[in-house]
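Protocol check, entry for the methods section draft. Step 1: assemble the input record (protein sequence plus ligand SMILES). Step 2: submit for complex structure prediction. Step 3: store the structure tokens unaltered in the notebook. Ligand used here: zinc ion. Step 1 record:
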Amino acid sequence: MWIDTHCHTKYSYDNWLEPVDLIRRAKALGIDAVCITEHYSYEASEPVEQVGRDEGLLVLRGVEIATDRGHLLAYGVEDDGWNIWGRDNYLPLHEVIAHINTLGGICVPAHPFREVGLACLLEDLLDIEGLAGVESHNGNNSDGDNELALRAAEMMDLPTLGGSDCHKTAAVGRCATRFTRPVTCMADFIAAVRARECSGFYFPGYLQAQPVQTSLAKPIPAPTCHAGPDPASSAARAMNCGSGPQ
Ligand SMILES: [Zn+2]
Ligand SMILES: [Zn+2]
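Step 3, stored output:
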């Protein structure tokens, strides 16, 4: 089964992505579940679970934490009690990893080879201990950065994950994780990662996808003939004023 393991919604407060649009898009692409990983907060994504139930798609939840050496995905924490530091930027990486592991969660470096301000894991990802996997495929990354992450995971002998890192509907599902055992809850998810029964990929259904339609889409005003409408557009056809191919 396929899970997009790195998703943001408007509850990350750095975008306007409506959860229902994310979930409908994931379903349309053929993704079986999504994991919402809002910035700095597990609790922020709580409303998305109900949207998933309403829409009939499994919604799991984690959190993305900005550390002093890059972004870290944490799965398996069940409230924001992990954040003993308060909502500060650039928390100490080693301490965050140790703390999440103590709580029974798992840690996966997000987009490890992308520059994120002052933080980057480029030099010494290989030396970091306590990781459960590596995000080898991130939908916001360049292909080259994903290739580096994949090679690092191989060298570290860790399983890989893929996630879109979506902040808008069109980005949903560019990358995803294929699980080779069923995942129905976060406990299954963590067990599967620990058993290495997951791999990150560019999601095959993404490229064949139909264009995005969002719940916030505004009606496009019908063009006039004088405005030179695209003759192939449905509006132009409806007005029967296009001279190009139908
Ligand atoms: Zn990030
Ligand atoms: Zn992210």
